Amino acid sequence: MLLRFAATNHASIADRQELSMIAVDDHEGLAVGDVPGMPEVLVLPVVAIFGPNASGKSNILDALAYMCCAVEYSHQRWLPDKPIPRRPYLLTDGQTQPSVYEIDFVVGGVRHNYGFSLDDETVVEEWLYSYPERRRRLLFERMRDEPIRFGPTLPGQKRLVERSVRPNSLFLSAAFANNLQATASIYRWFSRRCRIANAVNEESRLAATFKVMEKESRQDVLDLLLYADLGVTGMEIKKRGVGQEERDRPHRILNTPEINNRDVDLDTALSCEVEVHHKVGSDIGTLPFKSESTGAKTWLSLAGPVLTTLKTGSVLVVDELDARLHPSLTAELVRMFQDPSINKNGAQLVFNSHDVSLLGRNVRFRLRRDQVWFTEKDEFGATKLFPLTEYSDGLDNVERAYLRGRYGAVPFFDDLILEHVS
């Protein structure tokens, strides 16, 4: 499970901004999770970020996606003679300062803290600690131009990995590539247990959904489509041949500069034809998948990752959850993670949205005050992330108060500007 995440000097984030999944209030009837060894701490199943356009909502999630990608790919895909692909804050001196990423999470029943800082050329720092029985235990610490310091509880060929890691790649990434099993579960948390859903990887998410349907969860996907009331009664997936142009497409995407093209597996999507069945009076009509509405495609692209996340008790991070979905459907997706009768394995959902109805009193399993975060820009154009719990307002008026600007994090419209538009 995810406990906390913080980023510094990433995109519109200048100073350190931290997002916490730790519950502040008691939540009876909510699918909160327990932290091993910390009985007084509960972890939230859902956290949402609200704010105006261009305030940095997406950049908070992008920073987490970047961290996952760096762990997964830096050793194999970051080129030795090229700058580190990063997105520093450019409105001041971010280009000359390191970017820092830090995360607290639970793996194997133990809390861990992992982080790194890097500039355009090298990894400046990297560290990994575990907290069995609440006491910090060193696994490794890395400082630029210094030997890596290892703790006594990290077994395996550590020095072999140290010799193979480049100055511009992460030790954790190199450790997995060199079969250091003691860090494998940590690596897999970033590569498999933290899923990112954004506009870039919609096709790969569709591929993931089709894979789920080919395996044991076909009916679960169809049930989600039926539940969404999209008019879909069934689907049929047919294999087909793949032309050379389509075969090359996944590799072109993987080689683009965008760092967040994670889990791109378009071969499955490109090598099949999907037919969608609709009820037409008393008969069943068939449409090719490409003719479906954008809302249906969006829901289907989320269905596979949602089902997998719920079943494995992992983390799903969604950029613009409300994009192309009806507010009621968005609310139902949130409910899947909030409802303990559905979310039985401690899955977590982190998302941003403009859908303020999720703050209203008429939503089942509505967001609680410690599940709500806001972003806004400061006078220097940098993103500030802050929780609703900084305010003493009750839950009954959160939606109305937010729209009225009580918490900031809303756009300001200058009517004087419109006087010059005609």
Q: Helical element count?
A: 12
Let me know the average pLDDT.
86
In which order are the strands of the major sheet placed? 2-1-6-7-8-9-10
Total number of beta strands = 18
Give the end-to-end Cα distance, rounded to a whole number of Å.
53 Å
Poorly predicted ranges:
249-261, 263-267
Radius of gyration, in angstroms, nearest whole number: 22 Å
Structural class: alpha+beta
- The percent range for strand residues is 25-35%
Q: Name the shape in a single word.
A: globular
SSE topology string: EEEEEHEEEEEHHHEHHEHHEEHEHEEEHH
Bin the helical content: 25-40%
Largest sheet geometry: 7 strands, antiparallel
Which key terms come to mind for this protein?
single chain; 422 residues; 12 helices; globular; alpha+beta; seven-stranded antiparallel beta sheet
Describe the structure.
The chain is an alpha+beta fold and 422 residues long. It has helices spanning 57-77, 158-164, 171-177, 184-191, 202-214, 218-227, 244-254, 266-270, 294-312, 327-338, 398-403, 415-418, and strands at 2-8, 17-20, 33-35, 38-43, 46-50, 99-107, 110-118, 123-130, 137-143, 149-150, 194-197, 232-239, 272-280, 283-288, 315-318, 348-353, 372-377, 383-387. A hairpin with a 5-residue loop joins strand 9 and strand 10 (149-150). The termini are far apart.
